[in-house]
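Thread: "does anyone have the structure for this chain?"

Original post by V.I.:
We have the sequence but no experimental structure in hand. Need at least a predicted one for the grant figures.
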Amino acid sequence: MIGLVDANNFYVSCERVFQPHLEGRPVGVMSNNDGCVIARSAELKALDIPMGTPAFKLEGLRQRGEIHLLSSNYELYGDVSARLAQLLRDACPEIAPYSIDEMFIYLDGFTTQQCEALGKQLRQRIRRHLGLPVCVGLAPTHTLAKLANHLAKQDPHYEGVCLLQGQGHTTEALLKRTPVGSVWGVGRRLAERLAIGDINTAWDLRESDEKWLRKRFSVVLARTALELRGTPCLEMNALDQPRQRIMTSRSFGQPTGEFAEVHNALRRHAQRSAEKLREQGSMARAVMVFLNTNRHRRDQPQYFPQALIPLHSPSDDTRVILEAVRQGLEQIHRPRFRFMKAGVMLLDLVDAKEHQLSLLHPPARDRHPFLMATVDQINQQMGQGTISFGMTDAPAAWQLRCAHRSNRFTTRWDELMKVGTHPGAVAAAEAKEKAKQREQHTLASAKRRAQPRA
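Reply from O.Q.:
Generated one for you, tokens below.
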């Protein structure tokens, strides 16, 4: 049996863990540079505010206090996600993170009753230890587990935990009312092509001929149909394969053409990409640097350059990657253009262990692996960016706008929650205590006066 644990409104839920006053209120989380809404609470959805709404259109509602808009706080969300994954590892035989808020769990050898009981226990435990509301979908395949999770969210009858069998009336009814475009891995264009063949629901796809699907569409779609029938076709390892390329890019808070400012942004991206590279145990053979102007500003000159810098030998050393980034930027930078986005992509990745064992590429004799491991360990324990290569001028034009970002409560010492009492509450308590003391003094004086004199 396979389970999918999915946190409800993950970004908003992370914010509410540390800001309980947001519970029950319309809350939205904005994209980079506070551009548009990318996450909505149920209360915000009820106001018919669609995903992707530009933040400036909601400014009036925010100022009147009718809604709450927060800047994205990815450092906090990433840390909470890592804690969720660790909690699941402690309770389940195997897990495979699928996204920042979704984790597959594998329950081989568990009975149906045991799976359902574990799903309920996990939901309660996650709520108690992390404060996150989650739903759990259980089924024989990944695709059905996805649908079961969706049903657990939509139907209160399941109380957040839904188990679907490969066969059965409940599964059939669900598939018949699920549009084929809502099936995991079926996009809008593919759904339109399927509709031409009279495949409109998940049940239609399930009942389609496997060979016809493979010939007319793809092997992947044929496997999806088998998964809907309860036949597992997606291996666990397929969800956790090392990436073939690693990219880090961000839009700037404001456009800039200054070489130093663009270089600072690329240095930041290169260091983060190198960390990701080492996390998956890979090395890169090449580094690509790219820049973008604002394509929406037709009144300004447009320029979208990129440069590919091959490395002398595969490397995961941040210093080597930073040097390649500098060379690439020097090739493509033109001061008359104002850039709005920059990024770094690591290409042609190889397994670090296999490379070190190769006779053609003997292991380096320097101590860079120990240095990089130490830097990564310190940044993991003390917070992202505690140790970095090179200084960054602040405030820099390339830094993201995040005027409404909450504290990074779990990764920054200077942003930890402070336990105390509001000054106004302290003053009110002191006034109440003094009034009580005056009342007691008045009663005591009255009793003394009422006593008969000797």
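V.I.: this helps a lot. The mean pLDDT is 85.
O.Q.: and The longest helix spans residues 423-450.
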